[in-house]
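Reopening this one. Same input as before:
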Amino acid sequence: MYLTRFRFNTGRPQARRLLGSPHLLHGAVNMSFPDPPPRDGQGPRVLWRVDPTAAGRADLFIVGPGRPDLTHLVEQAGWPGLEQRGWDTFAYGEFLDALAAGGSWSFRLTANPVRNVRKPDDDPKSRTKRAAHVTPAHQIGWLLQRQEAAGFEILRTPPEQRLTEHGHEHQVVVHDRLPLQFRKGNADDAVGPVSGAGRRTGTGRKSGGPPPVQFTRVTFDGRLRITDLEAFRRTLTHGLGKAKAYGCGLMTLAPVPAS
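Same output, byte for byte:
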Protein backbone atom coordinates (compact mmCIF):
# COMPACT_ATOMS: atom_id res chain seq x y z
CA MET A 1 0.00 0.00 0.00
CA TYR A 2 1.13 3.52 -0.80
CA LEU A 3 0.04 7.01 0.28
CA THR A 4 0.71 9.80 -2.21
CA ARG A 5 0.38 13.56 -1.85
CA PHE A 6 0.19 15.95 -4.82
CA ARG A 7 -0.14 19.73 -4.61
CA PHE A 8 -2.25 21.52 -7.21
CA ASN A 9 -1.06 24.73 -8.81
CA THR A 10 -4.39 26.50 -8.39
CA GLY A 11 -3.23 29.34 -10.61
CA ARG A 12 -3.49 27.08 -13.66
CA PRO A 13 -6.85 26.81 -15.47
CA GLN A 14 -6.62 23.02 -15.83
CA ALA A 15 -6.03 22.65 -12.09
CA ARG A 16 -9.18 24.65 -11.36
CA ARG A 17 -11.09 22.58 -13.91
CA LEU A 18 -10.03 19.33 -12.27
CA LEU A 19 -10.80 20.63 -8.78
CA GLY A 20 -14.27 21.66 -9.94
CA SER A 21 -15.16 18.24 -11.38
CA PRO A 22 -14.95 15.05 -9.28
CA HIS A 23 -15.66 13.13 -12.50
CA LEU A 24 -12.59 14.52 -14.29
CA LEU A 25 -10.39 14.13 -11.23
CA HIS A 26 -11.54 10.52 -10.82
CA GLY A 27 -10.35 9.86 -14.36
CA ALA A 28 -7.03 11.61 -13.73
CA VAL A 29 -6.44 9.53 -10.60
CA ASN A 30 -7.21 6.30 -12.44
CA MET A 31 -4.76 7.22 -15.19
CA SER A 32 -2.03 7.28 -12.55
CA PHE A 33 -2.07 3.48 -12.51
CA PRO A 34 -1.36 1.24 -15.54
CA ASP A 35 -3.76 -1.35 -14.10
CA PRO A 36 -6.06 0.05 -11.40
CA PRO A 37 -7.17 -2.64 -8.91
CA PRO A 38 -10.67 -4.05 -9.38
CA ARG A 39 -13.46 -2.49 -7.33
CA ASP A 40 -15.01 -5.80 -6.31
CA GLY A 41 -14.74 -5.26 -2.55
CA GLN A 42 -12.32 -8.15 -2.15
CA GLY A 43 -9.06 -6.22 -1.97
CA PRO A 44 -7.80 -2.70 -1.30
CA ARG A 45 -8.95 -0.11 -3.80
CA VAL A 46 -7.75 3.28 -4.94
CA LEU A 47 -9.08 6.03 -2.66
CA TRP A 48 -8.51 9.74 -3.04
CA ARG A 49 -9.41 13.06 -1.44
CA VAL A 50 -8.75 16.75 -2.02
CA ASP A 51 -7.92 18.85 1.03
CA PRO A 52 -8.34 22.61 0.45
CA THR A 53 -6.93 25.18 2.85
CA ALA A 54 -7.84 28.73 3.76
CA ALA A 55 -4.74 30.00 1.93
CA GLY A 56 -6.05 28.64 -1.38
CA ARG A 57 -3.82 25.56 -1.43
CA ALA A 58 -5.28 22.23 -2.53
CA ASP A 59 -3.59 18.87 -1.89
CA LEU A 60 -4.62 15.58 -3.48
CA PHE A 61 -4.15 12.45 -1.37
CA ILE A 62 -4.24 9.01 -2.98
CA VAL A 63 -4.12 5.64 -1.21
CA GLY A 64 -3.80 2.45 -3.22
CA PRO A 65 -2.06 -0.93 -3.48
CA GLY A 66 0.22 0.34 -6.26
CA ARG A 67 2.64 3.23 -6.64
CA PRO A 68 1.09 5.94 -8.89
CA ASP A 69 2.75 8.03 -11.59
CA LEU A 70 1.37 11.57 -11.52
CA THR A 71 3.45 12.98 -14.36
CA HIS A 72 0.30 13.88 -16.30
CA LEU A 73 -1.08 15.82 -13.32
CA VAL A 74 2.18 17.72 -12.90
CA GLU A 75 2.09 18.67 -16.58
CA GLN A 76 -1.56 19.76 -16.48
CA ALA A 77 -2.04 21.12 -12.98
CA GLY A 78 1.31 21.36 -11.21
CA TRP A 79 4.70 22.99 -11.72
CA PRO A 80 6.29 21.05 -14.61
CA GLY A 81 9.18 23.52 -14.90
CA LEU A 82 10.60 22.74 -11.48
CA GLU A 83 13.31 20.15 -10.88
CA GLN A 84 11.28 18.37 -8.21
CA ARG A 85 9.10 15.46 -9.28
CA GLY A 86 5.91 17.16 -8.08
CA TRP A 87 4.51 14.54 -5.69
CA ASP A 88 5.55 12.45 -2.69
CA THR A 89 4.77 8.75 -2.19
CA PHE A 90 5.14 6.98 1.14
CA ALA A 91 5.16 3.28 2.09
CA TYR A 92 1.70 3.18 3.65
CA GLY A 93 1.83 -0.54 4.35
CA GLU A 94 4.52 -0.04 6.97
CA PHE A 95 2.33 2.50 8.73
CA LEU A 96 -0.67 0.15 8.66
CA ASP A 97 1.43 -2.70 10.10
CA ALA A 98 2.53 -0.47 12.99
CA LEU A 99 -1.02 0.38 14.09
CA ALA A 100 -2.20 -1.18 17.34
CA ALA A 101 -5.56 -1.71 18.99
CA GLY A 102 -6.20 0.95 21.62
CA GLY A 103 -4.14 3.56 19.82
CA SER A 104 -5.55 7.09 19.62
CA TRP A 105 -5.23 9.26 16.52
CA SER A 106 -6.47 12.46 15.00
CA PHE A 107 -8.38 11.71 11.82
CA ARG A 108 -9.79 13.34 8.73
CA LEU A 109 -12.51 11.71 6.65
CA THR A 110 -14.33 13.02 3.62
CA ALA A 111 -17.49 10.98 3.19
CA ASN A 112 -20.88 10.81 1.50
CA PRO A 113 -23.40 10.39 4.36
CA VAL A 114 -26.54 8.80 2.90
CA ARG A 115 -29.48 6.69 3.98
CA ASN A 116 -31.93 4.46 2.17
CA VAL A 117 -35.50 5.78 2.25
CA ARG A 118 -38.91 4.87 0.93
CA LYS A 119 -41.65 7.49 0.60
CA PRO A 120 -44.93 6.88 2.46
CA ASP A 121 -46.86 6.42 -0.79
CA ASP A 122 -44.33 4.00 -2.32
CA ASP A 123 -45.07 0.32 -2.67
CA PRO A 124 -43.71 -1.43 0.46
CA LYS A 125 -42.02 -3.94 -1.85
CA SER A 126 -40.35 -1.29 -4.00
CA ARG A 127 -36.65 -0.63 -3.80
CA THR A 128 -35.52 2.08 -1.43
CA LYS A 129 -33.83 5.19 -2.77
CA ARG A 130 -30.62 6.73 -1.59
CA ALA A 131 -30.94 10.17 0.06
CA ALA A 132 -28.26 12.40 1.54
CA HIS A 133 -28.08 13.50 5.15
CA VAL A 134 -28.08 17.29 4.98
CA THR A 135 -27.98 18.47 8.61
CA PRO A 136 -24.80 18.38 10.73
CA ALA A 137 -26.53 16.31 13.43
CA HIS A 138 -27.61 13.62 10.96
CA GLN A 139 -24.24 13.64 9.19
CA ILE A 140 -22.38 13.08 12.45
CA GLY A 141 -24.99 10.50 13.45
CA TRP A 142 -24.20 8.66 10.21
CA LEU A 143 -20.54 8.44 11.23
CA LEU A 144 -21.32 7.38 14.80
CA GLN A 145 -23.51 4.54 13.52
CA ARG A 146 -20.61 3.13 11.49
CA GLN A 147 -17.73 3.48 13.91
CA GLU A 148 -18.06 0.08 15.60
CA ALA A 149 -18.14 -1.93 12.37
CA ALA A 150 -15.32 0.23 10.99
CA GLY A 151 -13.06 -0.69 13.90
CA PHE A 152 -12.87 2.57 15.85
CA GLU A 153 -14.66 4.76 18.34
CA ILE A 154 -14.77 8.53 18.23
CA LEU A 155 -13.39 10.08 21.39
CA ARG A 156 -15.80 12.26 23.34
CA THR A 157 -14.75 15.62 24.69
CA PRO A 158 -14.36 15.54 28.48
CA PRO A 159 -16.97 17.77 30.17
CA GLU A 160 -14.31 20.05 31.63
CA GLN A 161 -12.94 20.76 28.11
CA ARG A 162 -16.24 21.64 26.45
CA LEU A 163 -16.67 25.25 25.44
CA THR A 164 -19.65 27.15 26.78
CA GLU A 165 -21.40 30.34 25.76
CA HIS A 166 -24.37 31.82 27.62
CA GLY A 167 -24.78 28.54 29.48
CA HIS A 168 -24.96 26.35 26.35
CA GLU A 169 -22.34 23.71 25.69
CA HIS A 170 -20.82 23.60 22.22
CA GLN A 171 -20.59 19.91 21.39
CA VAL A 172 -19.95 19.77 17.67
CA VAL A 173 -17.71 21.90 15.52
CA VAL A 174 -19.10 22.48 12.05
CA HIS A 175 -17.30 24.48 9.42
CA ASP A 176 -18.22 25.34 5.85
CA ARG A 177 -14.90 27.05 5.35
CA LEU A 178 -12.62 28.74 7.77
CA PRO A 179 -13.01 30.08 10.41
CA LEU A 180 -14.73 27.37 12.41
CA GLN A 181 -18.32 27.89 13.44
CA PHE A 182 -19.70 26.34 16.58
CA ARG A 183 -23.13 24.75 16.68
CA LYS A 184 -24.99 23.57 19.75
CA GLY A 185 -25.64 19.87 20.27
CA ASN A 186 -26.78 17.28 22.77
CA ALA A 187 -24.62 17.09 25.88
CA ASP A 188 -24.83 13.28 25.89
CA ASP A 189 -23.65 13.02 22.28
CA ALA A 190 -20.53 15.16 22.47
CA VAL A 191 -18.08 13.88 19.88
CA GLY A 192 -15.90 16.96 19.84
CA PRO A 193 -14.19 18.20 18.36
CA VAL A 194 -15.57 16.65 15.21
CA SER A 195 -16.00 19.12 12.41
CA GLY A 196 -18.05 18.61 9.32
CA ALA A 197 -17.65 20.71 6.20
CA GLY A 198 -20.49 19.72 3.89
CA ARG A 199 -21.37 20.77 0.38
CA ARG A 200 -23.38 19.41 -2.51
CA THR A 201 -21.24 18.53 -5.52
CA GLY A 202 -21.84 17.64 -9.14
CA THR A 203 -19.70 15.19 -11.13
CA GLY A 204 -19.67 17.35 -14.27
CA ARG A 205 -21.61 17.18 -17.50
CA LYS A 206 -20.69 16.54 -21.10
CA SER A 207 -22.30 18.64 -23.83
CA GLY A 208 -25.64 17.12 -24.73
CA GLY A 209 -25.25 14.40 -22.12
CA PRO A 210 -27.28 13.56 -19.02
CA PRO A 211 -27.32 15.97 -16.07
CA PRO A 212 -24.48 15.53 -13.56
CA VAL A 213 -24.90 13.25 -10.58
CA GLN A 214 -25.34 15.34 -7.43
CA PHE A 215 -24.03 14.15 -4.09
CA THR A 216 -23.10 15.57 -0.71
CA ARG A 217 -19.55 15.51 0.60
CA VAL A 218 -18.77 16.10 4.27
CA THR A 219 -15.31 16.39 5.82
CA PHE A 220 -15.01 15.22 9.41
CA ASP A 221 -12.05 16.13 11.66
CA GLY A 222 -11.77 14.57 15.09
CA ARG A 223 -10.07 12.00 17.28
CA LEU A 224 -10.59 8.26 17.48
CA ARG A 225 -9.42 5.14 19.26
CA ILE A 226 -8.79 1.88 17.38
CA THR A 227 -11.04 -0.89 18.72
CA ASP A 228 -10.78 -3.62 16.06
CA LEU A 229 -7.43 -3.59 14.28
CA GLU A 230 -8.39 -5.80 11.33
CA ALA A 231 -11.63 -3.91 10.67
CA PHE A 232 -9.86 -0.56 11.02
CA ARG A 233 -7.15 -1.48 8.52
CA ARG A 234 -9.89 -2.49 6.11
CA THR A 235 -11.55 0.91 6.61
CA LEU A 236 -8.29 2.68 5.77
CA THR A 237 -7.68 0.61 2.62
CA HIS A 238 -11.24 0.01 1.35
CA GLY A 239 -12.86 3.30 2.34
CA LEU A 240 -15.96 4.21 4.32
CA GLY A 241 -19.34 4.96 2.77
CA LYS A 242 -20.44 5.62 -0.80
CA ALA A 243 -19.14 7.74 -3.71
CA LYS A 244 -15.56 6.51 -3.33
CA ALA A 245 -14.91 7.08 -7.03
CA TYR A 246 -15.65 10.78 -6.52
CA GLY A 247 -13.28 11.55 -3.66
CA CYS A 248 -15.18 10.15 -0.68
CA GLY A 249 -14.34 7.41 1.80
CA LEU A 250 -10.66 8.08 2.47
CA MET A 251 -9.69 8.41 6.15
CA THR A 252 -6.21 9.62 7.04
CA LEU A 253 -4.54 9.72 10.45
CA ALA A 254 -2.16 12.01 12.27
CA PRO A 255 -0.64 11.81 15.76
CA VAL A 256 -2.74 13.36 18.49
CA PRO A 257 -1.22 16.77 19.36
CA ALA A 258 0.37 16.98 22.77
CA SER A 259 -1.92 18.77 25.21
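So the earlier flakiness isn't reproducible anymore. For the record, The longest helix spans residues 136-146.
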